[in-house]
Specification:
The protein is 84% helix and 0% strand. By secondary structure, the chain is mostly helical. Helix 1 crosses helix 3 (58-80). The chain has one domain (2-80). The chain is built from 3 helices and no strands. The radius of gyration is 15 Å and the shape is elongated.
Length: 81
């Protein structure tokens, strides 16, 4: 599982960094875009998991899950682009 996550991270890093360079993003900021988006998704996954373990109800988890779905869609769009 760690290998799959690592390879996915590298794939996304390469794609998004190339897209940022083509979009005239400042050269030292371009490599930071992909990790920021990927780490947001990982943080949301871990945060939602932690809240669920602590007994948060569905109404409390709804905003986190919406943000997680939105962030995941952004990752998908960036990788497809």
């Amino acid at each position: 599982m760690a290998a799959v996550v690592g390879l996915t991270f590298l794939f996304g890093f390469g794609n998004v960094a190339a897209l940022a360079r083509q979009s005239d993003v400042t050269p030292w900021i371009a490599p930071l875009v992909a990790p920021a988006v990927d780490l947001s998704v990982i943080g949301l996954l871990l945060g939602t998991w932690h809240l669920a373990l602590r007994g948060a109800n569905r109404a409390r988890l709804r905003p986190e899950r919406r943000l997680l779905v939105f962030s995941s869609l952004i990752v998908l769009v960036l990788n497809v682009t």
